[in-house]
Amino acid sequence: MKRLLLLLLIVLLGLVAVVVGRTLLLPAAAYNSAPVSLPEGLDGQRAAESLAAAIRLPTLSHQVGAPASQLTASNAAFAGMREWLAQHYPQITSHTESLATGSPSILLRWPGKDSQLPAVLLMAHQDVVPVAPGTEEQWTHPPFSGAIAEGFVWGRGAIDSKGSMVAILEAVETLMAQGFQPQRDVLLAFGHDEEIGGHQGNRRIAAQLQEQGKRLAWVSDDGGFVVRGQVPGVSEDVAVVGIAEKGYVSLTLQANAQGGHSSQPPAFDETAIGRLSKALQQVGDAPFQRGFDGPTGDLLASFTPAQSLCYRLIFTNLWLFGPLVEQQLAASPAGAAQLQTSLSPTLLRAGIKENVLPPSARATLNLRIHPRDSIASVTEHVRSAVADEQIQVKVMPGGREPSAVSDVRGEAYQQFAEVIRQSFSNTLVSPNLTVGGTDSRYYEPLTDNVFRFSPLLMEREDLPRMHGTNERVAIDTLANASGFYYRLLQSLNTSTN
């Protein structure tokens, strides 16, 4: 007995030694602790006034078939955006080539010293989502006023994503005025329909560039932000860079049954609605695989060195604490979305009258596909979970596979991350998996490096404002974002890739 206890003690001490040793060997967190000043020539107030003017143009994107009056108003607003660009950015107007897009989307080429090198592409989008009817009075300042007040620029699109667009343009305009010329071509793409899928905007632009045989060194698009106070155990700000993007597919589940009068129904699970209800429950009880592979693992590894000791012990030793961490992350919608393919029931259709048994019932499931999965594999997963030949599972058109994963150890990402550290004091850089969709996916055939990052500082209360009420961006945040793009463009002349 004593030998057994001694053996257990030795094993325990060995386990503790391994856990502590791995934690102590963790390298120090990489961030810039020195104050960061705004590059010479950039002006936060000038950027704020430009953004305010852009917000006053209600560039709403509309689906095909929208009322003619809405389309006319939006087209006028997009035409106004070109006039706005010419008015506020004369250097860009003079020194870039405006390339035809066949749409209100804008594509500009800034010639570099060597146009044979792969170009880089900076993206943002002009279009904005509508203001929810009935919420207009809840805004501190009218949603399309572009008010500059209390240190902020207010209005729809301030965050998503006219703020990023203005930051890009301010950086380019300033560099041009200073006589800077990039080593390679710089493309600026500002889509007009990102909020409805980008099919007429960036999809066409990407196809056009591909037909011309173009290659891109990297693409920068919206995605993550610089977030504050939102990572447990980390006191520093965290710049979240999307290195991959979830796929997308919607499935329909349809159950058929004998219709008729509701006074003489069959067994509940033999009705269309009952049969469909059972199928939905079976799908809900069959979760997709979870794990720390890919971008999620890179995300955890990036901020672990900056966490408090307790968190470092846990996250450095996922071989031991992985199930516990997985359980905790999966308990929140945001955490679960990083770990696995997500599934949401979004539409239900059945019946025409309360006393009539419907002959069919249909549900729509929306899935956001983790890079480890595919449209085929998640469809088969749902079919296997249902396991009922009387339930038809069909794939709806418009799906897309998960994106490729950009290499965080490659030169392009390392340089991108270094520019972030140079631009934001006391800020960690963390790669992650973008759970929503961006137009950058259309450019994957042209590059191995796509970085989804908006250099805007977001406090916890700021994120709900995007697509919500009282969207706004701080003037200082806008200025710092311009500084990031300024340094990023300067870095092109030191890159070797």
Mean of pLDDT: 93
Tell me the number of strands. 17
The CATH architecture of the largest domain can be named as: 3-Layer(aba) Sandwich
Structural class: alpha+beta
Any overview of this molecule?
With 497 residues, the protein is α+β, with helices and mostly antiparallel strands. The protein is 36% helix and 21% strand. The chain is built from 14 helices and 17 strands. Strand 1 and strand 2 form a beta hairpin. Helix 2 crosses helix 14 and helix 5 crosses helix 14. It starts with a helix and ends in a 7-residue tail after the last helix. The mean pLDDT is 93.
Topology:
Layout: H1 2-24, H2 44-55, H3 68-88, H4 90-95, E1 97-99, E2 106-110, E3 119-125, E4 148-149, E5 152-154, H5 162-177, E6 186-191, H6 202-211, E7 216-227, E8 237-245, E9 247-256, E10 260-261, H7 272-284, H8 295-303, H9 309-316, H10 318-330, H11 333-339, E11 342-350, E12 356-357, E13 360-369, H12 375-386, E14 391-395, H13 411-423, E15 427-434, E16 450-458, E17 472-474, H14 475-490
Give short descriptive properties of this protein.
single chain, 497 residues, alpha+beta, Aminopeptidase, 2 domains, 17 strands
